[in-house]
Amino acid sequence: MTIANKKRGAKAMLLTNALLLSPTAAKAAHAYEPSAWAQADVDRAFAFDLIPSELADDYRKPITRAELSAVIVRLYERLTGRAVPAPTVHPFTDTDNADVRKAYALELVGGTGKGVFSPKAPVTREQLAVMLYNTIAKAGLADKLPSLASESFRDAGAIAGWAKEASERLSAAGILKGAQMKEGVLFQPKSNASREQIFSIAYRVASAYGPLYIRGESDLLEAVEHRGRELIFKDDRSKRIYEEAKRANDSIIAPGMSDFEKELAIHDYLVLHVAYDYDNYLKDTVPADSYSAFGSLVRGTAVCQGYAYAAHIMLELAGIDSQIVTGTANGGGHAWNKVNIGGEYYNLDVTWDDPVPDEKGRLAYSYFNVTDAALSQDHTWNAAEWPAATAVKYDYFEYKGWAMHSAAELKAYIANAIASRLSEVSFKAVYDGDERADISEAFAASDALSGYSYSYSGRAYTLKLRYWQPAS
């Protein structure tokens, strides 16, 4: 089966490289190419539609006031999800640029004199701070910025009074950084900012503070990891997946549940509501939906990737860190999840806990929160790409006290079940040995049983016990 390799993406980060707004930024080989440090962010800024096409050149050139207006209008639209209408006013005599008029109408920028904007003038760092802060504030996101500066600039006294608050707030957020010089860290408020520096900042502000745009399932798988962020759906299918995942979680997760209990509820929901698409798998005709969370959550039929995607979305929406692992099992491509419970990672393979063919109402937990060592008995993957899973505390059978660590422990467990006249018990053998022979010996030692049967998945067993009726 074909598996799309989807690993957990990195969380959005603010600016961490001082070069991003340092006037001493590294130079590109050609002016029409972004510098090496800026290339990735510039590419992403284009993908976010933050860069006007006419600015896609001469990246190290100082950005002008009109050019910056075009970028911050697009940034505002990205942060709010709202298009800015063309204003009817024409406030300046030296420019009628539509983006300048939009930025002015939004109060993101002001003029440089009566009826004058100075559209071709380069933008200083203190001017940039004000325009950028105005954009974030106008989008309703100023409260997300720290209130105190994270570093003290040696040239703070040179920052104009009208730019101090904006410079301090953006510095505290790590958005505008100073340059390390011999005399200390300098903000250099009168220095000019380049196009590529502005593009990089605009992308990172949008990435860190703006809503997440969902244009397909891969976007959704990444977006659910960013809890508390607004989602804007541009894809109806992904929206349906999200709505079904939320509906399912709302129906099974109660206030006060622990992460283990939430995970268990999600596991059980998927096992009980999804059937493995076995017929299509055998015929090599698995439809695209079955590789998707849409198959699991909407159609109720999926293969391993569909299970893993649905589990990832539901787990993340429940506040549980999930990662999608890809590897092989039974000689074919396979996908499952790694989950963080109690600060430790565990393997969760919902697919392999769902019986094939489907059995209504049957639940199994052989692959619920197992270690890498246990999973490696029948799964393979590049362990270096994902966190190690070594803990056993939240392994389902360990947590329940049903993990048998020796033949003697198993025999005593069965003897106690018979003495209590239990009709059904479950356990998992985690010792080296032949647990089936040990089960037979335990039953042979009792004359209270009229018969027994068991089902198993891996080394996890459910025993059904039948007793002789007492003489009347």
TrEMBL record:
Keywords (A to Z) from UniProt: Signal
Protein name per the record: SLH domain-containing protein
Cellular component GO terms, alphabetical: cytoplasm
Entry-linked PANTHER family: CYTOKINESIS PROTEIN 3
Residues of the SLH domain: 83-146, 150-216
One Pfam family matching this protein: Transglut_core
Position of the signal peptide: 1-28
Top-level taxon: Bacteria
InterPro entries: CAP/Cytokinesis_protein, Papain-like_cys_pep_sf, SLH_dom, Transglutaminase-like
Species of the source: Paenibacillus lycopersici
